[in-house]
C-alpha cells in the first residue's frame, strides 16, 4: 500500500475507486466497503484509494475532544488498511482552514481534480465537509456532473446488531471486549513499551509486564482482568491482563499490566501488543497477597480455558 501525507502528492492511477472517512476501528462495516471497492476495482481494471484525515476532525474542532478516544492509533489504523488490501492511502492534514471547505469544494477541487475517481463508494450514513453537508444524494449529483459513479454500502450487522465505531467504543468502555471483537472482526489490542513496575507480581509467582501507552487518544478498555494474547518479537503468547489501580497493593494511577503464561524473558524497553479476548472479572481489593494469589491462580485457569 502506498501512503501519501498530502493529496497533492498522489500520482494518477487507472480508474481509481475511492472512499472517504475517518475509519476509526477499521471494523467489519468498513471492511465491507473495502471489499466492495476491491471488487469494483477488479471490474474496472482500477485501483483502490482511501482518503482519511489526521488529526481526527473532532480533535481539531474541539468537539468532545476531552473525552474522545480511538479504537486504533494512527499507526495501527494504517496497518489495518494495508491488511485490508487497499492500494493507496491518502492522509489529509485536517486543520480548521480545511474544515471550512464545503463538501462540494472538497470533492470538486481536491478529490476530482487530484484523483479523478471512476467510482466513489461510501457507507450508508457517511457525511463529510463543512457542517457534514456531503451526503449520498449530494455526492451522487456531483458524480453525475463530474463523470464518476457513486455507490452506497448498506448498514452491516452481526447477529442483528448494527456495526458502528461509536457502538464498539461503548462496548469497550464497559469491558465487553468479546462483543466488541465480533463487530471489529479482530481482537481489540493495546500496544506499548514495557516499563519498570514494582515487581510485586514476581514475588507472588505472577510476574507482569507493565506497559506505557504513548498515544493520549488511545481508547483503553474498562478496568478489569482479561484473558489475552501477547505479541512480542513476532511471537504470540497466552496471558491475562489487568487494567486498573491495583487496589490490594497500590492506589496510584491507572496501570496496564500483563502476566504472560510460561514466559521468563527480560523484555524491559521492548514493544508488546496485548490483544484482549474476554473479560474475566472486575478488579477488586483482596485482604492480602495470599488471597490475591489464590484468585490469580483461578484467573489463570479461567483464561487458559478461554484461550
Properties at a glance:
307 residues, alpha/beta, Rossmann fold, Elongation Factor Tu (Ef-tu), domain 3, 2 domains, 6-stranded antiparallel β-barrel, 10 helices, 14 strands, 32% helix, elongated
Structure description:
This protein has helices spanning 28-44, 57-61, 74-83, 96-99, 103-115, 136-146, 165-173, 177-184, 200-203, 289-306, and strands at 2-4, 16-20, 47-54, 88-93, 119-123, 149-153, 157-158, 161-162, 189-195, 209-212, 224-232, 235-244, 255-260, 271-281. With 307 residues, it is of the alpha/beta class. The protein folds into 2 domains: 2-162, Rossmann fold, CATH 3.40.50.620; 187-306, Elongation Factor Tu (Ef-tu), domain 3. A 6-stranded parallel sheet has the order 1-4-3-2-5-6, sandwiched between helices. A 6-stranded antiparallel beta barrel has the order 9-10-13-12-11-14. Strands 7-8 form a two-stranded antiparallel ribbon. α6 (136-146) links the parallel β5 (119-123) and β6 (149-153). α5 packs across α6 and α7 runs antiparallel to α8. The longest helix is centred in the last third of the chain and has 18 residues, at 289-306. The two termini are 33 Å apart. The model has no long low-confidence stretch (mean pLDDT 91).
Explain the layout of strands and helices.
Layout: E1 2-4, E2 16-20, H1 28-44, E3 47-54, H2 57-61, H3 74-83, E4 88-93, H4 96-99, H5 103-115, E5 119-123, H6 136-146, E6 149-153, E7 157-158, E8 161-162, H7 165-173, H8 177-184, E9 189-195, H9 200-203, E10 209-212, E11 224-232, E12 235-244, E13 255-260, E14 271-281, H10 289-306
Parallel strand pairs: 1-4, 2-3, 2-5, 3-4, 5-6
Antiparallel strand pairs: 7-8, 9-10, 9-14, 10-13, 11-12, 11-14, 12-13
Helix pairs in contact: 5-6, 7-8
Amino acid at each position: 500500500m502506498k501512503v501519501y501525507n498530502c493529496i497533492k502528492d498522489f500520482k494518477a492511477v487507472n480508474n481509481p475507486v475511492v472512499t472517504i472517512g475517518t475509519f476509526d476501528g477499521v471494523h467489519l462495516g468498513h471492511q465491507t466497503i473495502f471489499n466492495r471497492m476491491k471488487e469494483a476495482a477488479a471490474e474496472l481494471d482500477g485501483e483502490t484509494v482511501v482518503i482519511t484525515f489526521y488529526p481526527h476532525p473532532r480533535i481539531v474542532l474541539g468537539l468532545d475532544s476531552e473525552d474522545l478516544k480511538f479504537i486504533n492509533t494512527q499507526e495501527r489504523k494504517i496497518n489495518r488498511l494495508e491488511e485490508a488490501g487497499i492500494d493507496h492511502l491518502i492522509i489529509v492534514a485536517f486543520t480548521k482552514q480545511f474544515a471550512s471547505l464545503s463538501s462540494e469544494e472538497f470533492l470538486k477541487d481536491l478529490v476530482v481534480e487530484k484523483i479523478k475517481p471512476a467510482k466513489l463508494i461510501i457507507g450508508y450514513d457517511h457525511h463529510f465537509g463543512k457542517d457534514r453537508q456531503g451526503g449520498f444524494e449530494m455526492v451522487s449529483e456531483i458524480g453525475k456532473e463530474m463523470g464518476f459513479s457513486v455507490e452506497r454500502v448498506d448498514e452491516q450487522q452481526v447477529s442483528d446488531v448494527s456495526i458502528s465505531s461509536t457502538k464498539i467504543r461503548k462496548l469497550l468502555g464497559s469491558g465487553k471486549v468479546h462483543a466488541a471483537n465480533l463487530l471489529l472482526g479482530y481482537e481489540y489490542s493495546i500496544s506499548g513499551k514495557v516499563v519498570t513496575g514494582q515487581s510485586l507480581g514476581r514475588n507472588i509467582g505472577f510476574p507482569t509486564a507493565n506497559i506505557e501507552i504513548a498515544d493520549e487518544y488511545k481508547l483503553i478498555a474498562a478496568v478489569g482482568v482479561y484473558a489475552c494474547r501477547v505479541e512480542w518479537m513476532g511471537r504470540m503468547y497466552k496471558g491475562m491482563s489487568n487494567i486498573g489501580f491495583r487496589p490490594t497493593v497500590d492506589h496510584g494511577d491507572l496501570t496496564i499490566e500483563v502476566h504472560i503464561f510460561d514466559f521468563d524473558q527480560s523484555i524491559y524497553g521492548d514493544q508488546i501488543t496485548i490483544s484482549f479476548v474476554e473479560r474475566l472479572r472486575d478488579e477488586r481489593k483482596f485482604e492480602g497477597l495470599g488471597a490475591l494469589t489464590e484468585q490469580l491462580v483461578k484467573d489463570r485457569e479461567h483464561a487458559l480455558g478461554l484461550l
